[in-house]
Amino acid sequence: MRLVSVIAAAHRRQVAAAARRRKSRGQFLYYNASKLLEARSAGVAKQYVLTVMAANRVGILAALSNALDELRGSFVDVNQAVMRQYFTIIMSAEFPDDRQPEVIVDHIRDVCRPFGVEVMLQDPQADAVVESLGDRPPSQQYLLRLAGTDRPGVLRRVSHRLAQDGIDVIDLYGERQDQFGTFTSCLQLDVPQGVDVATLHRDLDQMLRPEGIAVSLFHDRVLQAISHPESPLSQRRGSFR
């Protein structure tokens, strides 16, 4: 059936996006590796989460990189995307311990002034958002696909139901088909061990099916089997359509 192909395509998009993010992170980390190691070895590095947004224009990333270099900042992790011609980047970056947050924000705004950037800087330690990995229970990944009539409040209700089981949404893809009044959304879920996935699927289906929204829930292993070019499922996809 065609659903198998759609799910496989969604999974491939997520894998490709993750690969692009890893490549981007690798390029930034390579560029800043010497400064990062130097700061860490001296014990003077402080880490912040930095978000920058602006209308997308050529050169904005170069300007941001220059600003961080002048601040002696180093990328640790970074995700960047352009959506509807709007540039957004969120990163974890390290700066010298004596670099004040106000100085960081003001300097980035000044260097990137031609692009009209919006800058937000957060200190994970001050905001108490650091979570020990040891405190997280074992989990498995699933892909949740929603497709059907576009209605307000769908994501709100779904996310509330997921939160009841402590399920984290670690990736989200969605698009709306205005000409048909429909939408498609794929959510990659981190599901704690012990959650009754069958009950979750049933609850979501009962919640959304009366409104013309189909719900599909697949374990990551199934998606990998479907997406792998040498998988029997992948080779037989044509017969399912």
TrEMBL record:
Q: ACT domain spans which residues?
A: 49-122
- A Pfam family annotated for this UniProt entry: ACT_6
Name of this protein: ACT domain-containing protein
Q: Which organism is it from?
A: Schlesneria paludicola
